[in-house]
C-alpha cells in the first residue's frame, strides 16, 4: 500500500487541514513554503494522468475550500501536481501541492 493510502487509513499520522468523504488535505511533512498543503483523493490514482474527470471536478471544488480555510484565497497561491519521472513525482498517489502564505517566486531554470 502506498504511503498516502496509509495516511488515508490512519496508519501514518497527518496534520489534517480539511477532510470530506472523498478527499483529504494535510500539511506537507517537509514544507517548501509557509503554507504547503497536500490534497489527495482517498481512492488511489497513480497520478493526474489517470484521474477520471468526475473525480477531478470534485477535487477542484475541494481545493477551493482548502484555499479558503487556510486563508490564502486573497493573497494567492501556486497549485502543482507532479507527474511521473520527469515531473519529479516521488509519491505515486495523485496529490496537488498548494503553496503560499508568502510570494512563491517564479518558475525559472
Ligand atoms: P511529490 O514529489 O511526489 O510531488 O511530492 C511528495 C510530497 O509528499 C513531498 O513534498 C513530501 O515532503 C511529502 N511527503 C512524503 N511523505 C510524507 C508523509 O509521510 N507525510 C506528509 N505529510 N507528507 C509527506
Ligand atoms: Zn495510494
UniProtKB/TrEMBL annotation:
GO terms assigned for molecular function: catalytic activity
Domain of life of the organism encoding this protein: Bacteria
UniProt motif Histidine triad motif: location: 93-97
Gene3D superfamilies: HIT-like
Active site residues according to the UniProt entry: 95
CDD domains found in the cross-reference section: PKCI_related
Domain HIT residue range list: 3-109
Coiled coil feature spans: none
Annotated protein name in UniProt: Histidine triad nucleotide-binding protein
Organism taxonomic ancestry: Bacteria, Pseudomonadati, Campylobacterota, Epsilonproteobacteria, Campylobacterales
Amino acid at each position: 500500500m502506498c504511503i498516502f493510502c496509509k495516511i488515508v487509513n490512519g496508519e501514518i499520522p497527518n496534520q489534517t487541514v480539511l477532510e470530506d468523504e472523498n478527499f483529504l488535505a494535510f500539511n506537507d511533512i517537509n514544507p517548501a513554503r509557509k503554507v504547503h498543503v497536500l490534497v489527495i483523493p482517498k481512492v488511489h490514482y497513480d497520478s493526474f494522468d489517470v484521474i477520471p474527470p468526475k473525480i477531478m471536478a470534485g477535487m477542484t471544488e475541494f481545493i477551493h475550500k482548502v484555499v479558503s480555510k487556510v486563508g490564502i484565497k486573497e493573497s494567492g497561491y501556486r497549485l502543482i501536481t507532479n507527474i511521473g519521472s520527469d515531473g519529479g513525482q516521488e509519491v505515486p498517489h495523485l496529490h496537488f501541492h498548494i503553496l503560499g502564505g508568502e510570494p512563491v517566486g517564479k518558475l525559472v531554470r
